Amino acid sequence: MFGWKIEKWAGPIEYWSITTGKQEEPGINGGLMRRQVGEPGADTPISTYICTIDVPDIDKYLNQIQKHGGKVTMEKRSIPGVGWLAYCLDTEKNIFGIMQPDRSAR
Length: 106
Fold this sequence. Notes:
Largest sheet: 4 strands, mixed
Structural class: mainly beta
Number of helices: 1
Strand content: 35-45%
Radius of gyration: 15 Å
CATH class of the largest domain: Alpha Beta
CATH topology of the largest domain: 2,3-Dihydroxybiphenyl 1,2-Dioxygenase, domain 1
CATH superfamily of the largest domain: 2,3-Dihydroxybiphenyl 1,2-Dioxygenase, domain 1
Number of domains: 2
Number of strands: 7
Distance between the termini: 33 Å
Helix content: under 10%
């Protein structure tokens, strides 16, 4: 569907990478992971996909998010060979991710 390439990641968590176009072309790739708890209810913050934004310095952005009223919902963690990932809530309780690419992340 959509002409996307979906592949299971070989890392320590069940994760499926989604390539949406050619690497040399601008665009956004993504991924899917298994829901960590039961299906969300109407009052839970995660009820759809999570948009993740590429950032050059995850620590700087985590500080800025909190300074402007956002909250960190999942502390920074490494995705080995890929980078650093954290999840946050904005001031309207929308969850989003930020990721700093870093192939040396372990």
